[in-house]
Amino acid sequence: MLSKCPHSGHRVSGCVLAFSFLFINFADGSSGKSSQSQDEMHAIHTNQLDLREIVFIIQSQSNSFHVGQAERRRAHLLEQAQSLTKKPPVVLLLHRLSDNEGDWSILPLLPEFSRSFGKNSSWLVFLEEETNVKMPAFVQVLAKFDKNKEWFVGKPLFDKESTIIHHYAFAENPSIFKYPDFAAAWALSMPLVVRLANKVRDEPLKSDFTIDLKHEIALYIWDGGKGPHLTAAPELCTEPEDSLRAQHCATTLSKEPTQCGEPVKKDDIFVAVKTCRKFHNERVPVIKRTWEKDAVLLEYYSDHADPSIPTINLGVPNTERGHCGKTFAILQRFLSSHVPNTKWLLVVDDDTLISLPRLQALLSCYNPSEPVSLGERYGYGLSQGGYSYITGGGGMVFSREAVVRLLDSGCKCYSNDAPDDMVLGMCLNALGLPVTHSPLFHQARPEDYPADLLAHQVPISFHKHWNINPVAVFNKWLRDNSSEKSSHELDRTAKTEL
C-alpha cells in the first residue's frame, strides 16, 4: 500500500513515479485479465489515443470506507486496462496527492497537474468512487476531440431557476450555463489544464466559500466567457450499470447500494433538533408529522422549555444567526449522563427534512469507533489554508469518538452566535480530522438542485421551508415504503401528493 505523498512542490510527481511503477508491474501480470471482444480490442489498438495519455483521478476521501471504495474503483480501471495494453494509464486517488485536506476542491492542484503531466499526457479525467468506466468506449469518446485544443467535457447539468447555492448566478436565464455531473466523470484536455494552471499561479484563487464544487469549477473554466463552455458527451451517463439504457454509455453508476450490512439500529442514533420559541408552532409540527416517528432517541433544544413538545432549555439564549453556543451545549449533553450512551449523534435544524431509515442504512458503511464527521461538505478559503466543514442545514452526523475528540481538544465558540458548522470545521481541521462528504445530504430544497442530479440519488435530507409545502416535499422525496425506491419511482408515485 502506498503512503500519502510528501507535501512538497513535487508531491504529485513523486506519486506518479510510484504509481506508474506499480501499475506497469500490475499490467504485465498474467492473472485477473478481463475478456474483451475483438471489436473492442481493435477499437483500442487502432485509436489514436494511447491509454498512457490519460490520467484518471478518483475524487476519493480519507475515511476508511471511502478509501476502500476508491481502491476498488482503481483496481477495476487497471483490470480493464491490462486486458487492452501493457502500457496502462496513471490512476490517482485525490486524497493521497497531498497533506492538504482542502485539495478536494481540485483547482489548487492544477499547477501540480500541469507540471507532472503537461508534456506527456493529453487528458485529466475525474470520476467519483461509484463511477464505473467502460474503458474501450471511454477512450473512443475522448478520441473524438482534438487533444491539442482546449476541451471541458462531461454530462451537463443546469439550473431551471437561479438558486442560492449558486449565488443566484445567471439569474436572468440560469439554464444557459452548464456544469458537469461529477458522477458521470468529466475531463479536461491538457492544453486547458496548462492554461488554467498558469491562471492559478498568476492570479491566486479567491479565499471564499466552496459550496457546489462542480458549478464553481465550471465558472472558473468559463472565466466570464473567455474560456470554454462544458461540451456534452452523451456517452457519459449516470444510468445504473445493469440498466438497458446504459448500453450506449461509456460511464455508468455502480449498482452497489449505499448500505454495507444491517442498518444501524435506531437506538444507536441520538437526534438533536435545534429550535427556538418562535418556531415551536410553525416548524416543530412539521417534524412530528414527517420524520419524528422514525427516531427512538430525540430531543428538541430551545431557548424556552415547552413541556407540550417537549423542548429543553440548555441555558443558551437564542441568536438570530450562528447558534454555536447551542450546538456546543448539545455536544456536551450528548456525552453526559443525561442521554443514553449512543454511537452516533445527528444534529439538525427545525426546518431540516430527513429520512432516518436511509441514514441508518448509510451509517452501516462507517465505523463509529473512528472520528467520523459526515454530511454535505462545504469549504472556506481552501486555496489559502482554510478548512472544510459540514453545512448544518442538511444535518451534521458525528460518531461518539469525533465528539469526544472535539470537546477534549478545548475547542469552543468565540461567541454564542458564531456559525456553529464553521467553528466545528475549524476545530476538526486543527485536529487533523477529515470532514466526510455525502451528496445525499442537501442544504437547500429539492427545486434548488437539477432534476438530473436528483434522479440518480436516493436523498437523505433537504433543508429550508421557503415557498414549499414541507410535508409534501417529505412525502415525495424522503418517505420510505416497505422497499426502497429510486428517485425516479419516488417522483412518479408522489406527483398526486403535490
Sum this structure up briefly.
Belongs to the glycosyltransferase 31 family. It is a single-pass membrane protein; Single-pass type II membrane protein. With 498 residues, this protein is α/β, with parallel strands linked by helices.
Give a description of the structure.
The strands form six sheets. The chain has a seven-stranded mixed β-sheet. It is an alpha/beta fold. α1 (11-28) packs across α3, α2 (38-46) packs parallel to α5 and α4 crosses α6. The termini are far apart. It is globular, with a radius of gyration of 23 Å. The longest helix has 19 residues, at 64-82. The protein has helices spanning 11-28, 38-46, 64-82, 110-117, 135-143, 190-202, 213-222, 284-289, 324-334, 356-363, 400-408, 420-431, 451-454, 470-477, 487-494; strands at residues 54-58, 90-93, 123-127, 131-133, 152-154, 156-157, 179-180, 186-189, 209-210, 231-232, 236-240, 251-253, 269-274, 297-302, 311-313, 344-349, 352-354, 373-375, 377-380, 387-390, 396-399, 436-437, 461-463. The protein has two domains: 11-253, Spore Coat Polysaccharide Biosynthesis Protein SpsA, Chain A; 266-497, Spore Coat Polysaccharide Biosynthesis Protein SpsA, Chain A.
